């Protein structure tokens, strides 16, 4: 008796696949052709950018933001804004070459007059230049904006012509030119370049002067013509009165020419030092003698004396001492080296 092979039906026999109709195939081909045509048109009309920099989102602004006053120094540029904590300056300035810095506190100007037209030898001019630099650094450290004036500023003052017709002593003429230069600059502080701050930053007088508001003409007891503060209107008013004084040719200083009632006299300040010869005669007699015998050498010694006083004043402001952190000694040694 023989065995017969039994045929097992396949799954496809039980569920036969439907045959696609010709109409359905035509629709599919038509849709695919339309899609290909649309893609072709898009790619040929707007080509894909070749580089990342060509995308508009990465481009620089067509017009840079406006430049603020006093916001450049050489090649360095910055933008003052209270958003300076943002880690990316370009997100605020829209400029990769400008950094964002915190707004700086306004510094009131303090002026000193230096006559470059006077007859002085080169050694004297060099020594006086060092004293002028010390004067500027000292007042800058106290929050002021020191400015050296000359006859060029006085010539811009309309009152300069009125002074030309008056015969005065040479010293008084220099004083008038000094005040005319101050008046041309406007409201501020006028100081002799031998008047320096020798007090703490929070001293009452220095704090008052840093406010930049001087409603009346003020001088200070014991400083003579060394320090004044006033607004422009007060300065111009006293200059006009002094030029009309009939006794002007007999005066030697501008304090003689200006009525005393025009000044508001404040007590002698403890935070201001005036290094004129008359005030140093008792304490620094050898220095005064050197100034009279060899002025350039005496001025250089005076510069050393002033620097030592400024150094001592700075140390007295920190009685507990000063600690300088040097995490990178090779890069921060300038902070500790003399």
Largest sheet: 6 strands, mixed
Helical fraction: 40-55%
Strand content: 5-15%
The topology string of helices and strands comes to HHEEHEEHEHHHEEHEEHHEEHHHH
Strand neighbour order, sheet with most strands = 5-4-6-9-8-10
Quick take:
With 338 residues, the chain is α/β, with parallel strands linked by helices. It has helices at 11-14, 22-45, 90-93, 122-141, 151-155, 160-164, 170-185, 204-210, 232-243, 254-257, 277-280, 285-293, 295-316, 329-332; strands at 72-73, 76-80, 99-101, 109-113, 145-149, 188-191, 195-197, 218-220, 227-230, 264-266, 272-274. It is built from 14 helices and eleven strands.
Structure description:
The structure is a single chain. The protein is α/β, with parallel strands linked by helices and 338 residues long. The chain has 14 helices and eleven strands. It has helices spanning 11-14, 22-45, 90-93, 122-141, 151-155, 160-164, 170-185, 204-210, 232-243, 254-257, 277-280, 285-293, 295-316, 329-332, and strands spanning 72-73, 76-80, 99-101, 109-113, 145-149, 188-191, 195-197, 218-220, 227-230, 264-266, 272-274. Strands 5-4-6-9-8-10 form a six-stranded mixed beta sheet. Strands 1-2-3 form a three-stranded mixed beta sheet. Helix 4 (122-141) packs parallel to helix 13 (295-316), helix 7 runs antiparallel to helix 9 (232-243) and helix 12 packs antiparallel against helix 13. The longest helix has 24 residues, at 22-45.
